[in-house]
Predict the structure of TetR/AcrR family transcriptional regulator.
Amino acid sequence: MTVTANNLDKRAHIMADCARLFRKLGYHGTAMSDIADAVKLNKGTLYYYFPSKTDILFAIYQEALQRLDENINMIVPGLPPDEELAAYVKAILRTIASVPDVIAVYFQEQPWRESALPAEQSAMIRAKEAEFTDRIRTMIKDGMRTNVFRRVNEDLLTIQLLAMISSLNRWHLIQGQASADLIADTIVAYLYEGIVSRH
């Protein structure tokens, strides 16, 4: 496919429609004919933009990670560990608020991702997830090192924090950026009650 601005825009619209469809029917429950009907294209034209359903799923994962990257890159560098962690949580929730269908599919299809995507694509996603996870773990460790946080198991806390955040999309609790910021503040308040050092 020749890459043009129009093609990229059309791909983005198809991907967004597919995210809504996958969220409703599941990736494995959606056929290319379902997608063609939903986006009002014949299958030949659809294959021009996305040669396979796997390509659509990978595009959805890429979109989620790119949006998260963009929000994280807006965090002011050099913040104290507690403020950086709060900003990081807010960035994740703003990402969920901005593309809820994309994020829903991201988590919904995670158990089957390894079998659905080629090994190289799965490895790229795992590497990016590890980068995000390591950054949270590093913030927690920096907070403990500087006595902002009390001593905790940073691996367990990182997993708990990410699990808490990922579950919010499932319950449709995030309705827009203001809601995302409010929920982020609440999560951070609960978190700090348990880990902020009292010295």
In short: The domain at 58-195 is CATH 1.10.357.10 (Tetracycline Repressor; domain 2). The chain has a mean pLDDT of 89. Residues 119-145 form the longest helix (27 residues).
